[in-house]
Design a protein that fits this description.
324 residues; alpha+beta; two-stranded antiparallel ribbon; 9 helices
Length: 324
């Protein structure tokens, strides 16, 4: 796969690698030097060259680092500064994001959750390389808001669905006649490090079910919807088909995570409110299984229906949007 080229390599006198690092840090918020190496220079035998580039970027005020809270060796977590964000946004390659990492946020208890989201994305990237598929360093977006109801935007969680990440992946399969078919797969990804109750995980599925059915209505005076309104679900303006939902578990032993999976399935099966949403393509796996075996091994347990492990397709490939 060719190396991504995000900015003019002469900008600010940075090397090509330095300018590849900036947009990746901007989008993914916190990354280790090891993660950046695996994303941008997978053939490298160490992270030394990436660390050298990070030091250059740091010296120019474009990136900064925070010590990982769980690391006894003082591992650094890197992020773009306000100036680094401005450089990325001025390049016009990425859509500007309202959220910017700060020194306090980088040092907060959200470190491990942010790193887990990026470890999940990295697993997709690494297995895409192995399989000849397409998923690159910028193919997942953290915390993209999706409106799930009309009304006052101040309703917060009641008005918006915010997946931990939206991930895009192009999977290539070979048909019976030898012809290749490329499928665009989109995932709503949720990471649970054994910190959420099972009821809260089920509540996330409720939010996805609301989004699947949500048809926005234009306001007519004082927030009242106009008669007739729109006829199409909001997600159709963003996605060619409704994304699969992937719940990724981490932060506990394999036996504990298996129990959480069973408990979630039992709660969903007993929840009459989710039965109309039985067409949601939702599955649960663990971060370790995803890293070790990849998304196209049978490591995903469907949340609804048959508990037999499947791969991330969850259903026949015809459900994916063809891009070929």
């Amino acid at each position: 796969m060719p190396r991504p080229h995000f900015l003019d390599p002469t900008d600010r006198g940075l090397s090509r690698l330095g300018q590849e690092i900036l947009p990746v840090l901007y989008r993914h918020r916190l990354l280790t030097a090891g993660q950046l190496t695996q994303l941008l220079r997978p053939a490298a035998t160490s992270a030394r060259y990436i660390r050298r580039q990070l030091e250059v970027l740091h010296g120019r005020g474009l990136v900064d680092a925070s010590v990982r809270r769980t690391s006894r060796a003082g591992e650094l977590l890197w992020y773009t500064t306000a100036l680094g964000c401005e450089v990325v946004e001025s390049g016009g390659e990425l859509a500007p994001r309202a959220y910017r990492m700060t020194e306090d946020a980088a040092a907060s208890q959200l470190q491990e959750h942010t790193l887990a989201v990026n470890t999940m994305g990295l697993a997709f990237v690494q297995h895409a390389r192995r399989l000849g598929d397409e998923c690159g360093p910028l193919d997942w977006d953290p915390e993209i808001a999706h409106r799930v109801r009309d009304g006052d935007s101040r309703l917060g969680d009641e008005a918006f669905l915010v997946p931990d990440a939206v991930l895009r992946y192009i999977h290539t399969t070979t048909g019976d006649g030898g012809q290749q078919q490329r499928m665009l797969l989109t995932f709503f990804c949720e990471i649970d490090r054994a910190t959420m109750s099972i009821a809260r995980l089920a509540a996330k599925l409720h939010a996805y079910a609301r989004y699947a059915r949500y048809i926005p209505q234009p306001a007519l005076g004082r927030g009242r919807p106009k008669a007739g309104g729109y006829r199409r679900e909001a997600w159709r303006a963003r996605y060619p088909s409704f994304p699969r939902i992937l719940l990724v578990l981490d932060g506990a032993s394999p036996s504990q995570l298996a129990k959480r999976t069973d408990d979630l399935r039992a709660l969903v099966a007993a929840d009459a409110r989710l039965q109309p949403a039985a067409d949601l393509q939702a599955g649960v796996t663990t971060l370790e299984q995803l890293r070790a075996h990849g998304p196209f091994a049978p490591v995903v347990t469907p949340v609804l229906g048959d508990p037999e492990p499947v791969d991330v397709l969850l259903r026949p490939s015809a459900a994916a949007a063809s891009v070929a």
